[in-house]
Queue: 4 jobs
Job 1
Amino acid sequence: MAASSDRNPPPFPAAEDPEPGLVDPADGDSDEGEDIFVSKTNPVSVSRGVSQPDRGAEDPPDLFSEEEEASSTTAKSNGVHSDDDSDLFAEAHMELNTDKPGSSAKKELSASSGPRSTSTSTQSPAAMQPTSLEQLEEEEAKDSFDVDVAITNPEKVGDGMNAYVAYKVSTRTSLTMFRSKTFSVRRRFSDFLGLYEKLSVKQSLHGCIIPLPPEKSVVGMTKVKVGMDDPSSVEFVERRRAALERYLQRVVCHPSLLQDADVREFLERDDLPRALNTQALSGAGFLKMINKASDAVNKMTIKMNESDTWFEDKFQEVEAEEQQLRKLHAVVDSLVNHRKDLCGNTAVFAKSMAMLGNSEDNTALSRALSQLAEVEDKMEQLHQEQAASDFFIFAELLSDYIRLLGAVRGCFDQRMRAWQRWQEAQSTLQKKREAEAKLLWANKPEKLQQAKEDITESSNRSGSTASITVICLWESRVTQYERDFDRIGMTVRKEVLRFEKEKAKDFKSQIMKYLEAMLQSQQRLIKFWEAFLPEAKAIA
Amino acid sequence: MMEEVKEVTSALSVHGHNIKITDVVKDGDALTFVIVSQKLSGTGEYHVDRTWDDFEWLQQHLFSQEDVPGLQGVIFPPLPAKASGNASAKIMKQLGVLGLGEWQPYCKALETFLQQVATHKILNKNKAVEVFLTSSDAPGRQKVKKNIFNRLSQAVEEMRKEGHKDVDEFFQTERDHNLVLTGCTKTAAEKFLDMVLTEQKIAVACGHFSAALHLCVEPGEDPDKKAFSRLCVQISEVFDSMKKNMTSVAENNVNTLGLGLDLESRYQEAEKEMLFRRTCKLVELENARRNAEKAKPVKKAAMEEVKTATQTEFQQICGVARQEIKQFHGVRVKMLQQALVQWCEKQLLTAKESTDQFNQHLQAFRGMAQ
């Protein structure tokens, strides 16, 4: 029963462009052929103080048809949840493949699946039929989420060094799993970090790409604690608010994460217990965590023989892309700085022209120069907005994706670990068998009986104990780990697919926002020049 | 092979207002300018090659004309500082806006200088101007004797005269006004230059971003990858447009208002120098008067003579100065107006072109398949 280690994952389907609205009815699913869902546009928006998010078309109210999606939910059970990898080698604990009734760790494949319309949190389709990847892709295409989050009203709470900023987190939804249609809570930054920590502990074991929250900043926060009024504090708070909003929007856009009870609690619960472990999650902490995992994987002696090159290729792509985005980010950073400089230069020039206009005794020229000074002042305003646009639209987009790619690498690593767990279980099984065989040959039936009757406590949730032999234990573990590995592989593939689609959508909508802002800017500029021209002509 | 410059008042044989510098050739350090001027009689042009040293030769000759009454009252058209092919940072800073744009603004400034000299009623009578513009050989490079116009010779004590109270309200007002304007204009020109330099940096950064995006384009059949690659190419084009836009904006700035502010600034300095020369003459006159009064009978006649001569000189200078100032006021307003109008028109055009470009890009994105 020992599976070979070079088992092939199911073949990746040929290039398909799943357009929203086109579902292959021949699939046998009960998916409707018609897509009534509009994909959510991306969470990033230019800085704004108002709570209404600038989304794409709103989703029509009735999102969820009563489809039975039993067959479309594939193996999404929790599988083995060992807290410590080293436990695998101890014969102390054993967790059989169980469906945890608490669905907090449950992952749904399709966004539009029926089970979501049930408001209870328990759902465990017993059927674990593997679906083809084609189906997975099509279900992805019908991404539609009627959850809208906005983060607004940053307010300083408290005084001195213990002060913090509380944000209003507003949710608007038509999903019945929430208590009401619109609601809001107040959250502080460490709450967001706490949410991330909870999610990453649970979900990343399944190969999910968990969005990353913005980084801590001691410098930024200290300034805010002192006073929220100076421009750099205002900018810092705004930057953080926008980043938190994007983070949260990405979380709720993710079909599996939205199901997570911690996410719902975060959105709904008025009184959230304070997250205490966030000390560890410093700015570079997230990436350090992921990189540490990578290193651990690389150090493992058993190297994976990848028969399907998809994972290897993809991983290299991801690494390369991360480097490219870093370069891009550096360039955008310098662009933002130059724009800020231009604001300063323009303001200073405007002043110098005003002075020149005042000193000028030719009245027409004097007036024209003063007008010029005003035009330059207005242009400074334009440059400010342009700099903000550069920053919030591009620089932050790039840094979000740099972090997200790190998270993607993380889920590849999770898959590697799953593989290694499986391999190690196999080799342990092999050893056990050999040991048993030796005993057999040595003709020591008593010892053999003893070995066979080793009882280990089962921590089966149903509470019953079962006596099980060691070999059976390891056999079932091997099966379990193999299934886990397959499952993670599928999830990773699906997640990466989804990620790439989201990324393209995100970039596209951002560049369009950027162009629209630029166009507005240019049009205002044209108005300024058109107003100034007659003044200039009127001289002499 | 030019003989001594004669003082015969010979008219210039070319038009002054449309002298053009058509080309600049860089040879190592040296820059050579090709100057084209139109003959007064009939059709025909003069093409001559000159270096900055030749310009300086011309300027020195203008300064040192001997028998032009009241020459010190002339506001001399300012000559831009010397530029070299491999200019140091210090020189570039001194040149300001003229150091930008591959010497095009610099040529324009030299052109303006020649036009102003050639159309100046007093200065264009100097044979050196004719020689400079028409002689196929380079003008003689012999150093002309040092004269009081040499800025560097103004000793510290001379500077104190700058604040000397005037006897004439017209001139006192003009001096005060000039002082303020010189400062303001210089500042404005500097700040404008800062703006332009930053605009250039933005253009460069946009170019970098555009190029870097091309690196994100990957080959492959994967539809998502292709979609993203296409996106990257499009975004790259947007930033390329932005680069072109910013480059145009900076160029427009340099070629119109930049040049205008630079010229205004240098011209104000030239007026300042003229007013200073007059003030120095005034001080000289007052000293001469005092000397004449205090002179012992032996010296008295000589002192009186000096006083009279100085008085005449001073009056001549004042006469010329008044005219020059009046003209200067008119010319500078016209020049600034022209600069402002051109600046506005060019920036308006660039803004409209950019709007069209960005619109096209936006439509292209909207049309892109999901």
Note: Residues 1-143, 455-467 of chain A have pLDDT under 50 and may be disordered.
Job 2
Amino acid sequence: MQFMLLFSRQGKLRLQKWYVPLSDKEKKKITRELVQTVLARKPKMCSFLEWRDLKIVYKRYASLYFCCAIEDQDNELITLEIIHRYVELLDKYFGSVCELDIIFNFEKAYFILDEFLLGGEAQETSKKNVLKAIEQADLLQEVNYSLSLSLPHAVFMV
Amino acid sequence: MRELMVRAMYCEMLGYEADFVYIHAIKLAQQGTVLEKRVGISIFLKQNMYYLQDLQSTNLIEVCMALTVVSQIFPKDMIPAILPLVEEKLSHPKEIIRRKAVLALYKFYLIAPNQVQHIHGKFRKALCDKDPGVMMSSLHIYLQMIKENPASYKDLTGSFVTILRQVVGGKLPLDFNYHSVPAPWLQIQLLRILSLLGREDQSMSELMYDVLDESLRRAEMNHNITYAILYECVKAIYTIHPKAELLEKAARCIGNFVLSPKINLKYLGLKALTYVVQHDANLALQHQMTIIECLDHSDLIIKRETLELLFRITNAQNVTIIVEKMLGFLRLCNDDYTIIDLVGKVAELAEKYPFTIWFIQTMNVVFSLGGDLMQPDLPSNFLRLFADGSESEEQDRQLKLYAVDSYLAVLKGDCSHLPQRFLQVISWVLGEYSCLKEDVDQQEVIRLLKKLLEQRGVSSETRSWALSALTKLCKGPGYAELALELAESLSSSLDTVLRQQAHELCLLSQDSQLHARVLPHPAPSDNLEVDSSLSFLDGFVSDALAAGAAPYKPPHQRQEELSQQRALSLEPYGLSLPVTMSSCTLTDRQSPTFLSMSSDLSVLCVCSANTLMLEGVKRVWGKDGYIPQKEPSLTPAAVDEPSDVVQSPDQQGAAETSLPEPEPEPPQLDQEKQQLASSLFVGLGSQNSMSLLGKTEVAVPRFRRKARQHESASTSGTSESSSNSSHSSRSTTDSFLYGGLLEEEPATPIQNSYHTLNSTSENEGAATVSAKEDKQANSSQILGKSIVSQRNCSKSLPVAFPHSSDSMVLQLPSELQELPHSDVVSLTSDPHLSVSCCRVFREDALLLVLLLFNPTETALRDVAVELSCEEPLMLNTEEYGKLWLSISNDVKQNLKLLTGGGDPLRATLNALKDSLQLHIVDIIGSEGIVACHLLRGGPCLMHCRVHGASLAVWLRSPLPSLPDCLLYHCQRALQEH
């Protein structure tokens, strides 16, 4: 997979993940172009697109478009399933996910994505395992956070 | 701080630049708590840097995060630093760490394959990992490696098959199931690997048949993910060595895809079909109706894929309709990438069936639709096909007439919107073939082309095509006026190519003979040969040099000299122009004041500053080489872009007109100049010899190919002078030879050989140092366009060649008296013998006539004359080292090593020393250094090293051609041994 983009129906970019090195300028250009192309397509149309020498696989969930770029030889259907699994993961983590969840907790969305896809390849396909890893990380973070909060207090008290 | 970071991150996400926070993010990530680390890490994912610390951490999650970051886009040069740590993690007890480490390594492999080469063994271990997750991750690496080199992983086929069988059989933990399909990602990965391994390999394929069959059978549930697996299966089945039973099943599968109401599946079905029809075109027949339906589908992507499929099944019967469909799609399409692709495909199809009117029509549409986006070789391919024509003469004619007609019609309409490429093609065809059509008035064609030429919005390249078409058409006296008018209007054009062409047009229209010769009709279809060494200009150049012009030097050499000059800092006012050797040589002889004056002058003015009478010498060589003058067509085409012109198909039309068109004057002019030069320099020769020698040698690289020919053909004594004489004034050559003779003659050994004098002089054609000045040959070569000049230098002269004439009276033989010759000069005399010398200039050679006068009574039996120009150079090792570094012309070559007992190196060098008069400076171990120099010229240093059975020789000399020459003689000397 070359990159993954999430954008709203209004064309606002919500999340982007690039697995190939590109300059910011290129990224912006690609994003703009793709958002336009994908938004122009009708709902009944095919979820695959040929774009430059890449294949774009996209799917719409509620008001969000999930859009992946893969190489020509890659399997389009399995990419669709990757998108689907990611949505499932988000859904499970946030509990019936909506666009706002991703806007406000974008870092979590990124963490989940990183846990699921690594370097553009599916790393862990089990829902349970991904969420377990995320929860563990969250927990560690909480503990650390409360520690760091309480530490100055302690010093102050003394 | 953290808050700010989060905000910065948000800015970044929205696409604003937030580079300035990166450094703070790094700080935060390094010192902070986990939360801060996470924030810091996510902010500069693309800049990621120091995770060494985290990688070494004992905290599982910290390690996880570090690995996650590492497998993002990672800078190549950081890999070595981090690789050992990641490698270590491959044997971590936790599978999640191992998995991430493997994926990180996969990423490294993608970035820099050679850096992870040493851990291929560990990949195998990962493949056999007890955790399926780790094994799955390792498959990514294997897929990549097998893609690059399937042959070296064939032994793994068995294991992959076993794994797949286990997966399909549901042996994996339930965790891996996805919608109750066992590990689909893993299956697909394995299928892809297997198809790569089984391609064109029957034995491997046989291992797979069973498991593929099982996969097909198991994947029957009606869900996207099973379709994905099925699709991959089908692809695998058609990739590997075919098995009828499986193929049948796969075909049925494809049928299901294509017929599916789901559009995604339909698309995949078409894609699979496209892939499959290469092997079995009949499959497409079964789905004819579906394909037709898809062709009219509202979704462009489906249509596009269908066209792709049709493209694959094109044959002579259906090509017309398929191309029509494709063109129809092209008209609708507005995506550049698709247009380029489709245009290429249409053209490919059309070119399979040329020589029909349909072909022309199709190509016309292609050109007008594809426009300037298409691949640049398309138009030239078309023109080539068109020009080559078919077997049938009549059909050919018809076709060309049709094309001319259609293009005239196009031009008559509004052609402002047409793509430039199309206009170029039109111009070429009209220029070439419009004369085939009798009923069309040439004036009309010319008028249209002129209109095109004057039209606004036409690129200058197109203009030049149009103009060359006009040039072809404007033959005969009737068009002189028109040509003149055109030339006048364009002669002030800003585009130099157009101006040049206009000038050519003007000249050609006046001389119909020349026109016919330069632009023969029909245009020759075979490639024109271009002499990139510009040997046809040699004569011109040598005359110019003879007339005192400074020789050409390649820019790097000028740079070098310039820097040398700077180092000397002789000039008070730095000169930014590269100062040539000629002014350098002046420094040796002239006063400093004179130098500063002469170096301020540009290159050629040096000649006049030299106070030689050189009126009438033209400025021929400038800073960047030859300064074109008088013969615009001769020089720019040849000097500026000798290879471009013909090689780039785009300019073919232009090349035809801009190829050398000689003008009648140069040869005569040259001869006049030559005579002038030789008469001017006769007296000056000897005192000038040093500096001229230095200069002329520098010019060699440009004409190296030719100079080499002489060198290989002539002997040690003569080669130097011959390469000189081919492009320098004769006086130089002469004086140089003088020098050689003067010194060598007394030492001439009188040997006992059985040559009679007369016969030798006749046999050898006298001492021919072939100084060829073949102006006439040049011009004829240019006209004939066979420019690669072959000079017959096969005559090999012996090192010692006696020749003489009867010399009671010091007079030349009668057959030589007619030729221009110098005075007879006495070289040496003693009571027994006196030797005189005379130079005779023949057209193809410089004859050196030695006159021997024998006043005594005894009969002179045999005479051997040895001409030599080189002698040992006495140096010690230290001086040698210094000299070596100061010289830049390098030649390296391997020589044969003499193996006759003792130290082979010493034996070889001694042999060379004996035969070539070299000085062996030193022999250290397996290396030896040798030196020699020309009598009046520069030194040549030789560095030899024993290398196996051969001797690696490295020569350096300030004179570029000396090493080559010396090398040749070394080879000969060793062969004789």
Note: The first helix of chain A runs from residue 24 to 39.
Job 3
Amino acid sequence: MFQNTGGLQSLLKDGARHYSGVEEAMLKNIEACKQLSTITRTSLGPYGLNKMVVNNLEKLFVTTDAATIMRELDVHHPAARLIVMAAKLQETEVGDGTNLVVILAGELLRMAEELIQTGLHPSDIITGYEKASKYVDSILSSLTVYTLSNLTDKTQIIKALTPVIASKVYGYESHLATCVAEACVIVTESGQKFDLENVRVVKIQGGVLDQTKTYRGMVIPRPAEGTVKHVRNAKVAVYNCPLDPQQSDTKGTVLIKTAVELKNYSKGEEEIAQKLVEDIHAAGVQVLVLGGSVSEIVMHFLELKSIMVVKINSKFELRRVARMLGATSVVRLGAPIPEEIGFADEVSSEEISSTKVTIFRRESESSKVATVVIRASTQNVMDDTERALDDALNTFRSITKDQRFVAGAGACEAEIAKRVKAYAMSNPGLDQYAVLRFGQVFEIIPKTLAETSGADPNYILPKIYAENNLKVGVDVESGTVKDLSEVVVDHLVTKQWAIKLASDVALTVLRIDQIIMAKPSGGPNLNKKPVVEDD
Amino acid sequence: MAAIQYVNSKAELVRKTQALTLNLTAAKGLQDVLRTNLGPRGTLKMLVGGAGQIKLTKDGNILLKEMQIQHPTAAMIARAATAQDEIVGDGTTSNVLFIGELMRQAERFLGEGVHPRVLVDGFDKARAIALKVLETLKVEKEVDRELLLNVAKSSLGTKLIPEMAKKLTEIVTDAVLAISQTGKSIDLHMIEIMHMPHKMDTDTRLVKGLVLDHGSRHPETPTKLKNCYVLCCNINLEYEKTEVNSQFFYSNAEQREKLQASERKMIDERVEKIIALKKKVCDGTDKSLIVINQKGVDPVSLDMLAKEGIVALRRAKRRNMERIPLACGGNAVNSADDLTVEDLGWAGSYQEITLGDDKFTFLEDVPNTFSCTILIKGQNEHTINQLKDAVRDGLRAVTNTIHDKAVVPGAGAFEVAVSVELKKEVKNIKGKARLGAEAFADAILIIPRTLAENSGLDSQEVLLDLISQYEQHGVPVGVNVNDGAAISPIAEGILDNYCVKQQFLQLSPVLAQQLLLVDEVMRAGKQMGGGNQ
């Protein structure tokens, strides 16, 4: 250790790496980010192409959803990971538009790289990008082309959600959007705040996507325990504790001296169980929903009283069922008090193509919980549809906060590009170049849309600009330009966040001039590559 | 073969000039890494941990802590800088730069055959003069919000991008002002720094009240309340095991039921007492009760409380038990007996927010602000960490000012002044020690020079300009990082902590002296020798 002299490398622990300067750190970072965004770029839009991702557990994903691709890719490069983080944040904050974040960030960095190569100092690019990003933020709301006026109007919601679903499962968007809209309306019509918790998505294999359906109430993928499979107008009690003779917290031992005592002991147990069931029955309860286990003996008495028993293992699911039924979960043994009892119009165990489910329906009043049952032939399609529905629901959540929409189909991006480029000309300094490039970045969206639909990407932009209308975008079906603002609208907040996050991450990457990496720590390598066999 | 190797054949050893070179290269190497960090226009460093965690920072202290330095000399310097951070909370980068520069200047003289001891003496003399200069330069000002804002701004500006620095400046200043009580020393622990991975970093705010990082565990409790009494207690509301190994014997189910009932009774009684208190103070009004318990609350008790509309939070942090009475008033109670209204605190609004799996509880509109919370928001882990480190330093800077009741002009002005004054004084130093003092005077200019360099300015030009301006006018002048012009830091509000500069003058030369006086480095210690190599 005393031998090597000079440089930071010699000061650090063995195995640590150190990169610094524009060439070594910044351009390498940019390169990695660019690579990442090229991966998802072609997945944009309704005609986007699917990616097949096999993750470290050898699970297979076939999807166009950038959030999923990002999550499963297991990115190691630190700068590229920044983009992944930004994408994840977009996913948690608004739920949709992850691809937009990744593509914009990648493009912003690509443009920055070109500028650096022409000799611009990174700090000038940073100021230019900062300026431009502020400018875009300020003009974005003026691009609004549509405002949703009534949050309980199904047709309006369908209009807003269709483009979201169309970009993931093209061809089924109108049916799926209707299902989601229905669910959204169900949970909000009673005036309660929209909470994603209240819309459940259940996947049942079999059938086709068109059979996807929305239920008022809950669908639990599990049959009833006993022989009672169907109850109408049921009073339901929810128990969140095991329904069997409870153990005390202190250690207890049964002390038995004679055979008679042994006999009496189990008899006593039975009596307690019987009393419990009779009390429950007397309270008028016809259906029990249980979070814990139920002993054989209690089950036996419940059967005798023909009380239907449904077990739910997840405590969150149990809470939802309780909320939907208007019940309070009981945590002690004994009959529920009237306030704790909930109500369902119908509880039934059914079979949907060989999957046994229990459906809690509550038609009469608002049920507060809605369930969308996805039907499709393969696991992959179901997973992909679920992600699409998830995005749609998240979008609805943001819609409840802000009802403004911008024109979709690349129209909004083309307009932003145009305006930012005009704005660039008003900047006298060196940062003008950066602002100009920032504008150009947005052209990638209409271009990609055209590309994936088979049109020539180079012709599209001049055509859109020629129309001089902020509503004109790319019609993917015909590969031409058209005013699509009646059908394709994008949520403003989604765009706003995506642009903000993308410019944020690009700026962060541009601000880094040194990277110091510790030696990768040991431990089992979870990401070991499977051995590829020759064939 | 050196003597040591007769004693221990495995020993490694470097001596004399070689040993000095070793120290010199380490000091310069470390300086090279940190120099681009200094000042508001310094660049970011990206640190990647062993497991791939990412950290972005401009803060010298964080960088040194995370860098895994192995070189012995470099580690020593890093430790000195970290010590600086622990004592005053700022100035780590300056420290490393100064040590590096002192070594670099010393190298020149050493090359000419000057004995290190002579230089060391010179450093000592120079340091004494520098400290005198510090006394004359320090500006004693009345501590008001504006002054504190300026100090916080100067400290935070070097760690964050301008927009965030501006925002945090107000937050940290107001936080410290809120908790400071006249006649009492400031306990920064009473400012909780809470982070939520949520929204953007610009949503960071100061909560005049408390934010707890857990929530009620009962689904039925309300998530929003107005006008609440707060009971802050340390009462066990769940089954307690006996200290001795105990066990029940029963021979039939009935007996067991009884046992269970009595087992619960003790806890139930405590819960009843709380409920009784709630009924006494809240019934018939629109007020509600929040119980914040340091110990546990079991599901049955939670259920009982929830039925009465009482929000119960369990397993609060020890520190929060101090902070709640400070903010909300009332006392922290340890027993459910004799609860009175006087024991209760007050919060105007209560809100529970769920983010994914994490819950956060906000208690706001509290009667006092002697404890408050800085709520850091950020889009991802590294942003939050960056903010957290900055907030910590900002708080320290503000607190230091209140303690010192004085500030020092920043923007490199102090260093320029010390250098110029030293060069004047040097004439009065007799003998060879003068060489060391001259080296000191040159070395301290590293700070303004680096500031200018990092801003993309011509450092020579800027430096000469500053020196001549100071010599002409005799008032401290600093560098404007935006255009390189000379400015008056006091007028511009670029102010540094007095104690930071003091500490900086104390620590760096001492360490440089120690390093210079090393003439043998050997690795033969019991713990150090074996293993690697």
Note: The first strand of chain A starts at residue 17 and ends at 20.
Job 4
Amino acid sequence: MLASRVFSLVGRRSISTSLCLGAHGHAGVVKAEEYTLPVYADRRDVPLPEVAFVRELSAQQRALKEKEKAAWSALSVEEKVELYRIKFNETYAEMNKGTNEWKTILGGVLFFLGLTGVILIWQKNFMYGPVPHTFTDEWVSAQTKRMLDMRVNPVQGITAQWDFDKNEWKK
Amino acid sequence: MRGLLARRMKFHLLGAFLVSMGCATLYKFGIAEPRKQAYADFYRNYDPMKDFEAMKAAGVLESAPPK
């Protein structure tokens, strides 16, 4: 309720000033703003857009449009193509044609992956300290022996790969 | 220009069905069946007491020392 009170105070000002100025200057007819008019768009699912592609026709094109009003068999092939190009921007073939953008994208992705790799290598070399002592070969082999003794994952896992009779990994 | 959605939909419905059934079949015969077979083979002639003695001898059981 309070909101509607505020709106009535501001209500007189809700119509934009430029439209009001325009309304008074042209004998009562408001000039349509550019953005309110229908636009042309190349879309596969809209075969006949609302307006033609070319809006302001040159003298030559206007003459052609006049010729279009007569019999169409009198038009040459180039004239027919010209009439088509006045009405449409791209043909369906041109519209659906692929680009080479994927090469740029792939190149960019691979470049940044490589850059990340360089950064990681630099970090391992210059930034990180030594790994814990539990990663040394002696510790890892003692750890693996204990896992085998405990029969960890005997069906499909690590113990299944070990040959207990020959005391070596299965081939 | 006719039936654009219908044609696309038919193609993709068939494709989706085939891809999903293919994935399921591959999983069943590539992963699930071998796993069942491995477990069957393991437990067919499994002797738990022999396994226990082996683990005891290796010294990994705290309350059953090798001695």
Note: Chain A touches chain B at residues 45, 47, 146, 149-151, 154-156, 160, 164 (CB under 8 Å).
